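Okay, can you check this protein?
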Amino acid sequence: MFAKFTLGSLYLMIQHRSAILKGVILPFIFYILLQLVRYGSAYTGFSYGSASSLLYILFFVADMAILTIISINTTRTILLDEQPEPFKLKFKKREIKYLLYSIGFLALWIIPSMFIGASLTLIMYNVLMGVIPLTFFLVTLFFTLRLSLIFVGVAIDRSISLRESLSMTKNCQWSLFFSLALLIALLFIFEYCIGLFSSLIGGQFFSLISFALITPLVNTFIYIFTAIILTILYSTAYQPNDSPQAESAGDAQ
C-alpha cells in the first residue's frame, strides 16, 4: 500500500498532467502574485503595528483559498475525470466548505506545532523530555490523516462523515502516514537546502526568486501530491471495484 500511495500518485500525476496543469496554472499565477505582494509588504508600513496581524490573516486566507482550488481541481480530475477550464477560477459553496475545513484542521495543529518547538528545545537537555511532546505531535498527525477523507467528499460533492473517514482509513493508516511523512520530510530538506544556498550566496534577487517562485512550487506540489494520495485512498476504501484510476495506480508498481 505504501508503494501504491507513493509511486501510484506519481503515475497518476504524469497520466493526468495536462488536466492537472489546466486546473493549477491560474491559481499558481495568483499564488506568485500574492507572494510578491507579501514580499513587498515587508518593506512598507503595513508590516508594523496593528495592521500587521490583519495583513497576516488576509495573506493566510488567500493562501488557503488558492491551495483549496488546486486541491479540489486535482481531486475532481483524478476521480471524476473532469477537465478544468484553464484560466478560469470559481469559488462557490464547495470551495468555501473545503476552505473552512482546511482552516479548522490547521487550527487543531496550533498546540501540536508548539509541542514541536518545545521538543526541539527540550531534547537538548534530555532526550526523554524531547520525545514526549514529539510523540504528542505525531499522534495528532496520525489522527488528522485518518480524518482527511472528508476533504475528498467535499471535493466530489459526496458526504463523508468523520466516522466514515476513520473507518475507511483503518486498513491503510500507517501507509498513509509514512507516505505523507516521507513527502513532507523530503520537501522540507529541499526547502532547507534552498534557504541555505540563498544565505550563502546572498543577494536580494535570489531571495525574491526563492520566496516568490520556489515556495509556491513546493507548496503546490505538496497539495497536488496529497490530493492524489487521498483519491487513491478513497478509491481503494470506498469504491474498490469502480475506480479504473485506482487500478491504474496499482498497476504502475
